[in-house]
């Protein structure tokens, strides 16, 4: 597969947006190219994650092992699975299977750490993107906490008080891949 086709999925992933083309090419160069056949396990729940996986082509599904019989959630082409595993040790919280033939890039923690050591600007970029995401999540959690506190206060208030309004979301939820 041509390098341009392998770099293309990275351009749509928020974590990698803003990187220089040479930085993206270097990450792709370090990544393992993997083909999963239909039914293959891409990641398994409760297993240690050692790499992020970018689905270059094909379709995968997240299986909910906590709710037998629940519908599988589609994981489309261009998605990144187990993002944090390329940076820190994690435990997979879901099982993801290839539904069709899946061509993927597997970026190991070791390779990403080496890339960041070779290019400190890459490490700075990833740190900034993750920090922004954590700050946004903290802001969202504070808004939920305030809304719940307001509702609790209303429940305890005399009957002549009006019920507080829960703020409407003005943002898209973060993907849970």
Order of helices and strands: HHEEEEEEEEEEHH
Instruction: Give the count of helical stretches.
Output: 4
Count of DSSP E strands? 10
Indicate the CATH architecture of the largest domain.
Sandwich
CATH class of the largest domain, anyone? Mainly Beta
Largest sheet: 4 strands, antiparallel
Q: What spatial order of strands do you see in the largest sheet? A: 1-10-4-7
The overall pLDDT average reads 86
The portion of residues forming beta strands comes to 15-25%
CATH topology of the largest domain: Jelly Rolls
Uncertain segments: none
Radius of gyration: 20 Å
Give the terminus-to-terminus CA distance: 24 Å
Global outline: globular
Helicity, in percent? 25-40%
Helix/strand-derived category reads alpha+beta
Number of domains: 2
The CATH superfamily of the largest domain appears as Jelly Rolls
- State the oligomer: single chain
Short synopsis of the structure:
The protein has 177 residues and is of the alpha+beta class. 37% of the residues lie in helices and 22% in strands.
Search tags:
37% helix; 4 helices; 10 strands; globular; alpha+beta; 4-stranded antiparallel sheet; 177 residues; Jelly Rolls
Protein described:
With 177 residues, the protein is an alpha+beta fold. The protein folds into two domains: 3-118, Jelly Rolls (Sandwich), CATH 2.60.120.10; 120-166, no CATH class. The protein has helices spanning 3-11, 21-30, 109-118, 120-156; strands at residues 32-36, 41-43, 48-49, 51-57, 60-63, 73-75, 80-81, 90-91, 95-98, 102-108. The strands form three sheets. Strands 1-10-4-7 form a four-stranded antiparallel β-sheet. The chain has a four-stranded antiparallel β-sheet with strand order 2-9-5-6, with no helix packed on it.
